[in-house]
């Protein structure tokens, strides 16, 4: 009895500590996203259901899409079992849902075991793909953004998932043997299919050894889940949560449509004689609010949605594998753009934790994390946006960084400057005067 109470106290303490650390981290991530400038986005439940819940774009590569779906379904549905474990831990009960659900309990646990085995198989396949057969877009020798932590991160998560699933099977197998021995607290709930295969390992063990093994597996499983939940807030695996709000706030504009700056558009229209200056306004800009900065130099110039995108990126590299600039050997990788944006946000967070929440260092996203060479290599083809399974737009960040470079620093490649000057003087990218525009049609009947 005393042992039981100690276990309950320890469990509540672990639950409280995990809850506190996770909540602290979530609040910090929310504050970091709020660093971005405001942007109007209307939510779309349909897009969330289609792209996050239904994983629509993942199935553009059907085999990987199916394997990923198994891990995803396992993650979502096994949470029901976790709910029982948490309640057992708090209340000091054992398999609390068994008497409530009756025969259905056995079907449910068998189904969870089926998912657990599925998750183990898929994690092994993914480990092989990453480390042995080496899928091109996941190779850190080819893609410098994957050097160091990203590769370790992916492997840590896959190994942890395998261990957590083995803990469930061990827990159920030892439990089944203890039930057959009529051990106290181990009510008869039956043997389950997959853990039943492990039972022969434990038959013949003493009751004390079985109870210790069952308890170790139980504690390992639940503490592992707490640790996993905290770890994902530091990892690319945060996408398991962020994919939902991120797809909900998907850009509903026409695919590939670029966002203009209203003040600049107005200036250009006035210049082309398509609009008249506002009578109340000063200068051609009229009553439009002049933005503090043209484009973006650092993360606080990007919108909150760009920053949410950075926290949602799964580092899958589907964008990079479709990027023509990357394919032709340029230094641009849209995945790196997202990873750099997130790294910048994480570095700002570290500064806040050390020096207070108003602290900002002297660095900036453009220059210290992303180079001019990278952003200039983009062809604005939009392939990265189309490919991304969670509707992230690396292109939007690239365009804003470029806009800053051109409009604030007046630094564009010579060929671009020529085009800008042609647009200004000839209203076309070419250097022919407007009057000569229809010369080509002379003599055409
Ligand atoms: S829009 Fe730019 S970054 Fe995206 S795929 Fe095309 S070239 Fe690459
Ligand atoms: S931006 Fe999208 S496609 Fe590219 S690595 Fe991140 S999640 Fe994958």
Could you give the order of the helices and strands? HHHHHHHHHHHHHHHHHHHH
Q: Write down the overall mean pLDDT.
A: 91
The number of distinct helices, counting runs of at least 4 residues, comes to: 20
Shape: elongated
Low-pLDDT runs: none
Question: Which quaternary structure do these chains form?
Answer: single chain
The radius of gyration over CA amounts to 28 Å
Number of discrete domains: 2
Q: Kindly name the structural category.
A: mainly alpha
Strand tally is 0
Q: Could you characterize the architecture of this molecule?
A:
- The chain has 445 residues and is mainly α.
- It has two domains: 2-248; 292-426, Orthogonal Bundle (Fumarate Reductase Iron-sulfur Protein, Chain B, domain 2), CATH 1.10.1060.
- 61% of the residues lie in helices and 0% in strands.
- The protein contains 20 helices and no strands.
- It has helices spanning 2-33, 45-53, 62-91, 97-101, 103-131, 149-180, 193-196, 199-202, 207-232, 239-248, 262-271, 304-312, 318-322, 324-327, 334-355, 365-369, 372-376, 383-387, 394-407, 414-426.
- The longest helix has 32 residues, at 2-33.
- The termini are far apart.
- The model has no long low-confidence stretch (mean pLDDT 91).
- Residues 322-325, 332, 334, 378-384, 394-395, 398 line the site of one iron/sulfur cluster (SF4).
């Amino acid at each position: 009895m005393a042992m039981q109470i100690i276990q309950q106290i320890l469990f509540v303490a672990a639950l409280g500590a995990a809850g506190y650390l996770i909540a602290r981290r979530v609040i910090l991530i929310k504050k970091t996203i709020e660093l971005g400038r405001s942007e109007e986005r209307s939510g779309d439940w349909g897009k969330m259901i289609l792209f996050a819940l239904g994983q629509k774009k993942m199935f553009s590569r059907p085999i990987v899409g199916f394997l990923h779906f198994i891990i995803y379904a396992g993650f979502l549905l096994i949470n029901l079992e976790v709910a029982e474990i948490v309640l057992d831990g708090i209340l000091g009960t054992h398999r609390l849902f068994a008497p409530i659900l009756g025969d259905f309990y056995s079907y449910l646990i068998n189904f969870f075991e089926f998912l657990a085995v599925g998750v183990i198989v898929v994690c092994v396949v993914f480990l092989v793909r990453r480390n042995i057969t080496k899928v091109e877009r996941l190779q850190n020798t080819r893609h410098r953004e994957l050097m160091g932590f990203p590769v370790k991160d992916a492997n840590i998560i896959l190994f942890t998932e395998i261990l957590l699933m083995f803990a469930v099977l061990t827990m159920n197998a030892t439990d089944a043997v203890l039930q057959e021995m009529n051990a106290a607290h181990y009510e008869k709930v039956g043997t389950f299919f997959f853990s039943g295969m492990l039972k022969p390992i434990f038959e013949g063990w003493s009751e004390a050894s079985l109870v210790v093994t069952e308890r170790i597996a139980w504690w390992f499983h639940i503490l592992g889940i707490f640790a996993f939940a905290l770890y994902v807030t530091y990892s690319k695996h945060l996408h398991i949560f962020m994919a939902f709000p991120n797809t909900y706030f998907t850009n509903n504009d026409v695919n590939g449509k670029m966002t203009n700056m209203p003040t600049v558009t107005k200036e250009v229209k006035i210049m082309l004689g398509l609009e008249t200056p506002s009578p109340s306004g000063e200068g051609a800009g009229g009553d439009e609010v002049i933005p503090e900065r043209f484009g973006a130099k650092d993360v606080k110039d990007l919108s909150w949605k760009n920053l949410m995108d950075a926290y949602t990126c799964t580092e899958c590299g589907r964008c990079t594998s479709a990027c023509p600039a990357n394919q032709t050997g340029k230094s641009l990788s849209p995945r790196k753009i997202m990873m750099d944006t997130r790294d910048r946000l994480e570095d700002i967070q570290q500064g806040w934790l050390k020096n207070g929440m108003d602290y900002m260092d002297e660095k900036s996203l453009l220059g210290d994390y992303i180079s001019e060479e990278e952003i200039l290599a983009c062809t604005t083809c939009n392939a990265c946006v189309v490919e991304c399974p969670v509707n992230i737009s690396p292109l939007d960040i690239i365009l804003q960084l470029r806009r800053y470079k051109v409009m604030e620093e007046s630094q564009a490649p010579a060929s671009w400057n020529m085009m800008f000057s042609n647009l200004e003087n000839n209203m076309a990218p070419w250097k022919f005067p407007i009057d000569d525009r229809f010369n080509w049609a002379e003599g055409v009947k």
